[in-house]
Amino acid sequence: MNPSADHSIALESRGVHHWFGSKRVLGDVNLKVLCGQFLSLVGPSGCGKSTLLRAIVGTHLPRRGQIFLFPKGASQGMPVTGPGRDRGIVYQHYSLFPFLTAQDNVAVGLSLDQTSLPFRVFCYPQWRRLRKQHQQQAADFLAKVKLADAIHLYPHEMSGGMRQRVAIAQALIMKPEIILLDEPFGALDEATREELQRMLLALYDENQQAKKLGDKPPYTLIIVTHELNEALYVGERVVGLSQYWDWKKEGHAEFPGATITYDKPAPLSEIKSGRDFEKFAAQRREIHGTVFNPKNCPDRNEHLTYWKTGAYPEPKSVSPAGT
Amino acid sequence: MIRRPINRSTAIALGICSVVLLLGAYTWLANRQHARNPDDTTIPTWSQLAKGVAAATEVNKRSNDRWLVQDLKASGFRLFVGLGLGIAGALALGVIMGCFGAGEAFFQPPLSLLAKVPPTAALAVFFVLVGTDTEMYIAMIAFGILPALAITVYLAVKEFPEELQFKAYTLGASHLEVIFAVILRYVFPKLIDAVRLVIGPAMVFLIAAEMLVGDVGFGYRIRLQSKLLNMSVVYPYLAVLAAFGFGMDYVLKLVQQKLCPWYEGYRG
Distance from A166 to chain B by nearest Cα, in Å? Predict the structure, then answer.
């Protein structure tokens, strides 16, 4: 069931459908994400990437189907029923609490998670001591993402790049099962973008080190982006969600919603070497043609070759109790 | 040219000029009036004003207390308790309306209607419901400021970005923590802004009620002394009111700066 550390599923989307009134958004989205995987989710605007992400975060549950999480040691999937501390999220905007400094923004998760409101009110001295520890942890974490000088700045005093760095630290410090990034670098200039992409590659590197030692890789990540170069550069696997697929062939009378039409490995990128987007050209064209082209509606399984050509065979679905 | 900044010393000098001019004009007016009628009390001279201040601050033979102390105690108590209850109620109502759709649907219609009724006009209602004691002044101030404050809180909660709410959940917050540790912190400086704006109306409600039915307090004293044309007492009372409003505003601004250092820059 859990054959080896680098084989276990972290998250599974099983038959996820979503619609708003008569407007179909997601139709039968099936996806398995492995522990330690860096997955890029791409798709044309309006294809439902954000809807899928919201379903995973748990703020907007799918109308049909379920998202399962497989926390460490769990042999069965835990269905997502709402937002929780096991999934971290980094948004493009509003990613930090405006009333907290960088340090407190990172520390607040530890505090919210480990203490309760009554504890903070009625056990004030203990709370003070614990808060000191959390702040120290946060300061150490911020030093790791090269923000040691900025820990006392408020979000509005920081640049966009610094803010997203803090936001990533804020999510990472919780050690979530999976981290979701929703167009995280969309509002940044190119140089800052590159810097932050390298930061993610450094995390990927930590995963590889852990795998070498036979440990569980610490970070699993889904990054939603419309920038194909970014998707191919940061991710090790690119998944395309698209409304352009041949649904008539599957016997639907009406459009059932966007589904996954592309799932292939991406070339591994080294942090040290420069960003060479030229080498992505062929795959970029392929993704453009299959995922982004309204005139081309392929069979949805045609480009789902990740498990055939990737490093691992497809893991079996583990049925949760009662389904 | 319009909108061009002037330098600081010029600005200060002009400010001093305006005050000096005001005092000078008053002195001239008072002297002219007293040249015509030495017994005039409508525009008291500075020496008359000093006597008025003395009358207000000396122990009064009849009541065996100082007017100003008596009035400050009575009006101050009414104002602060009224403000406190009004703010607490508005905060609770605003948060309930902002956080829960049912609360919004339930409270919004009566609130927007009641917000349009001037509390001073509804004096008789308070009169009937809570009598003419201290409770009436308190109720009047509390209900007078509540609609405006509650709507401010409600709108501030509504505009809190939902991404931040979701994020709080992913960081392990409970529903109560999202309200008390996240949303209220965001709303707090906006509430202080709103409180600064309702101090003036609260004073209007209080003075008006005291003028109509009070037997002690600022409104009562001002009405009484105005009837006697004792402007030498009325003017110092107005000055105390102005100083109080000014001081409250300053203190609230200071509290906001100390407790929410993020707010000024965030607002941009």
Answer: 13
Which pLDDT band, with edges at 50, 70 and 90, does A1 fall under? very low
User: Maximum distance among all alpha carbons in chain A?
Assistant: 66
B172 vs A contacts (CB less than 8 Å): 84-85, 109, 112-114, 174
**Mean of all residue pLDDT scores within chain B:** 93
Mean pLDDT of A38-48: 91
Q: Give B-chain residues touching A59 at CB under 8 angstroms.
A: 166, 169
- Chain-centroid distance of CA A159 in Å reads 23
pLDDT confidence of residue A2: 40
Which residues does chain B have within 8 Å of residue A81's beta carbon, measured at their own beta carbons?
none
* Percent of chain A clearing pLDDT 70 (strictly above): 94
Q: What percentage of chain B carries pLDDT values higher than 90?
A: 81
Asked if A109 has any chain B CB less than 8 Å from its own CB, the reply is yes
Q: What is the ipTM of this complex?
A: 0.89
Residue A292 tokens, joined = 């982004």
Q: How far is A26 from chain B (nearest CA, A)?
A: 21
The SS3 assignment for B230 reads coil
Closest in B171, B186, B262 to A113, CB measured: B171
**pLDDT band, very low/low/confident/very high, at A46 (cuts 50, 70, 90):** confident
HEC secondary structure over chain A? CCCCHHHCEEEEEEEEEEEECCEEEEEEEEEEEECCCEEEEECCCCCCHHHHHHHHHCCCCCCEEEEEECCCCCCCCEECCCCCCCEEEECCCCCCCCCCCHHHHHHHHHHHHHCCHHHHHHCHHHHHHHHHHHHHHHHHHHHHCCCHHHCCCCHHHCCHHHHHHHHHHHHHCCCCCEEEEECCCCCCCHHHHHHHHHHHHHHHHHHHHHHHCCCCCCCCEEEECCCHHHHHHHCCEEEEEECCCCCHHHCCCCCCCEEEEEEEECCCCCCCCCCCHHHHHHHHHHHHHHHCCCCCCCCCCCCECHHHHCCCCCCCCCCCCCC
